Amino acid sequence: MMAFFGVIGSSAQIRLVTLDPGHFHAALVQKSGYSGIDTTVHVYAPEGQELRAHLALIDKYNSRGDEPTHWKELVYTGPDFLSRMFRERAGNVVVLAGNNRKKIEYIEQSVDSGFNVFSDKPMVIEGRDLPRLERAFATARKKGTVLYDIMTERYQITTILQRRLSMVPAVFGVLEKGTAENPAVTKESVHHFFKSVSGKPLIRPAWYFDVTEEGEGIVDVTTHLVDLVQWECFPEMALDYHKDIRMLAARRWPTVLSPAQYARVTGMAADSPLSVYANGVMDYTIKGVHARVSVRWNFEAPPGGGDTHFSVMRGTLASLVIRQDSAHGYKPVLSIEPVVVTAAYEQELRSLIAGLQTEYPGLSLLKTAGGWELEVPAAFQLDHEATFAEVTKKYLGFVKNGNMPAWEVPNMLAKYFTTTKALEMARASQR
After folding, report:
1. Which of 116, 252, 277, 380 would disulfide-bridge 426, Cβ 3.0–4.6 Å?
2. How far apart are CA 197 and CA 277, in angstroms?
3. Cβ(366)–Cβ(346) below 8 Å
4. Are residues 233 and 295 both part of a single domain?
5. Mean of the pLDDT values across residues 257-280?
6. Does residue 162 lie within any of the structural domains?
7. Least confident residue range of 106-115, 196-205, 293-302, 422-431
8. Tens of pLDDT along 4-60?
9. What is the CATH number of the domain that holds 184?
């Protein structure tokens, strides 16, 4: 079943409006060009380093030698930038990526004014704001617009294949229910405060380290992980957070940054170490399946490394495991680890992979001690930045054609219920 929204139409152009871009994800939406989009983008934001950093990235994409983009940014920085955006109505899609405390207000006002909204995660960082988000989705539906969050991790090939293999009973069996001690599904993510974006060291704003502005780690990066649990375990199934999600336990702990580290990543001085509640773990059930999601933030990745992802789905016949570690050169690799290896099982697996080769030419199996690893040609492996083009193209299709799947909205609400409930429980456990 599909939920239908107002259709812009194939002959009309989508016109982007960027609102208060405080996070580099706003620029990554424009790292590629897209058909059917006006290349003039109106930007409404306060003057400052965040805006300058955003525009510098757009300039870099426009001036690169390989497939340059052709964006023209028209910028307004007056103190009335928000009301000016609503008065001018220079576009029909608002792109949001910045201060997460302000995000729900920006979403509400944009949707109330009839804009489509393409929002970076998280849409909300506190449970008290979940009803506001629910009302915003209802308003968007009434007005025929599309409100959607940017779930880039669905476009990683290892995750796509993990999902595909989990839907083949002859290879995966059926998803285990698991226990609190041994979940059926595990998702872990490690991130770093100091990193490079588009080849240049990233300077983060000071508010990024204030959890009342950015949100704690347990409601930020975990948004992607909770989304993947839902998307992989219950594909295209609408979830009801009132009855399908049960939080069992959650905890959070800080990452401590030295004054030198803080200065390196923000360009600003600090008098003392800074403790940031960037780390967390949650245990919960989703339609009776035990899941564990955790996030950890370090200051900087080891040499040759970067942000990493670890994922396990346990089936009755095999576990599907994604590892991204030093042993694999910090590239994500999907393993198929059967409960029992038999000739018949191997034949089923090889037959499945042979069928997938029409869609992914060059896909192959490598025998390992515990089963097999999937060898995926480089052409199908997207880095973090490249996934933004994929999710943006998906969203633009929703806006142009009005065919967003009906399960997307209830599952976004289920996702933010899960993350904010985990934060509530983690805080309570430390009182």
Report:
1. 252
2. 23
3. no
4. yes
5. 95
6. yes
7. 196-205
8. 344 454 446 899 999 999 999 999 999 999 998 999 999 999 999 999 999 999 999
9. 3.30.360
Name which of 429, 386, 401, 420 is nearest 153 in CA terms: 386
Cβ neighbors of 112 (< 8 A, separation 6 or more) are: 139
Task: Over range 106-119, report the average pLDDT.
Answer: 98
Rg for the chain (alpha carbons), in Å?
A: 22
d(CA 234, CA 29): 28
- Residues 290, 210, single domain; the answer is yes
pLDDT given at position 5: 40
373 and 250 share one domain: yes
User: Within this chain, do residues 103 and 208 fall inside the same structural domain, yes or no?
Assistant: no
Average pLDDT over residues 66-76: 97
Confidence of residue 235 (pLDDT cuts 50, 70, 90): very high
Q: 20 is in which domain, residue-wise?
A: 16-150+392-400
**Span 140-162, average pLDDT:** 97
In angstroms, the first-to-last Cα distance of the chain is 45
**387: in domain:** no
Whether 297 and 242 share a structural domain: yes
**Rounded distance, CA 105 to CA 38, Å?**
26
Residue 103, strand partner residues:
none
In a shared domain, residues 145 and 163: no
